[in-house]
Amino acid sequence: MALRSRQTVVMLPMRVWDLPVRLFHWLIVVLIPLSYLSIKGGFPDVHKAIGFTMIALLLFRVAWGLFGSDTARFARFLRSPGAAFHHLGAITKREPDTVTGHNAAGGWMVALMLLLLLLQAFSGLFARNRHNVEGPLAKYLDDAAVQAVSFVHAANFKVIFAAAVLHVAVIGVYLFVKKQNLIRPMLTGKKRLPAATRAPRMASPLLALLFLILAAAIAAALATQF
Ligand code: HEM
Ligand code: HEM
């Protein structure tokens, strides 16, 4: 009679998110509500300052998605639609977390959120409201175009809000149904993974700093030169 051995998988803490990705994430979580409150509360200058900060953060994130750490790279987390649907099929299945970065479905959601945020931040540059609060590039467009862009800027915020609610709800499903805590790794950078998992390569913090300085310089030029 064949003996069945019960294998225990050894789990070890592994760094999956670098500091730049975590800082980027928690900064946008704070800045998005503040950008809404500032413009609605009558502080357009604060709104614009937050907007330029968001532009710098987003430009940084795009560069980091191309040249940064493994788990930050678009080429790594944008998998085939088939892989995404396969992952979604098991979303309520209780199983240990073996994913090193964004999962196959989450990767597409992340890309969508980044695109929506880019559209939001860059449309703000051309927007104007009825109190003549305007972005620095609005003066280069005619009235009809400014109106259209301002509509996009206002409507897209609702889409971002809906995407963020869905994002948090899905993370709740992972936590309470699938029993996988994705929030802790986004805070600490570390996840417990099977010991045999290949550790992702983390890019140099100096490279991150260089990209951040370049991104901030572009945002500052937009804020001051036009
Ligand atoms: C991701 C960053 C941004 C977010 C989340 C955001 C969000 C918003 C929201 C919610 C409104 C109110 C829309 C409404 O009336 O319903 C608004 C208006 C406005 N924002 Fe932004 N914004 C961002 C970036 C920017 C930037 C970079 C600028 C320009 C420097 C800007 C300039 C304006 C202007 C001029 C308005 C008034 C015109 C309008 O209502 O469309 N925003 N923004
Ligand atoms: C304004 C609301 C939010 C927006 C726009 C947002 C956006 C994002 C984006 C763009 C990423 C990808 C990070 C990257 O690769 O750079 C991400 C990941 C993540 N977010 Fe959020 N987020 C929001 C709120 C939250 C909240 C409130 C939580 C916690 C409950 C959260 C938890 C996470 C986690 C755990 C991940 C990593 C998911 C994974 O393991 O693949 N987010 N979020």
Q: Any overview of this molecule?
A:
This protein is mainly alpha-helical. The protein has a single domain, classed as Up-down Bundle (Fumarate Reductase Cytochrome B subunit), CATH 1.20.950. The chain is 62% helix and 4% strand. The chain is built from eight helices and two strands; from the N terminus they run βαααααααβα. It has a two-stranded antiparallel sheet. α2 (44-67) runs antiparallel to α8 (205-224) and α5 runs antiparallel to α6 (143-176). Residues 1-5 have low confidence and may be disordered. The site of one protoporphyrin IX containing FE has 21 residues, from α1, α5, α6 and α7.
Bound molecules: protoporphyrin IX containing FE
Record field, number of beta strands: 2
CATH homologous superfamily heading: Transmembrane di-heme cytochromes, Chain C
What is the first-to-last residue Cα distance?
Answer: 81 Å
Number of alpha- plus pi-helical segments: 8
Residue share in helices?
A: 55-70%
Strand order of the largest sheet: 1-2
The level 1 CATH classification is: Mainly Alpha
* Number of structural domains: 1
Largest sheet data: 2 strands, antiparallel
Structural class: mainly alpha
SSE arrangement, N to C:
EHHHHHHHEH
Q: Which stretches are low in confidence, meaning pLDDT under 50 for 5 or more residues running? A: 1-5
CATH architecture: Up-down Bundle
Q: Overall pLDDT, averaged? A: 95
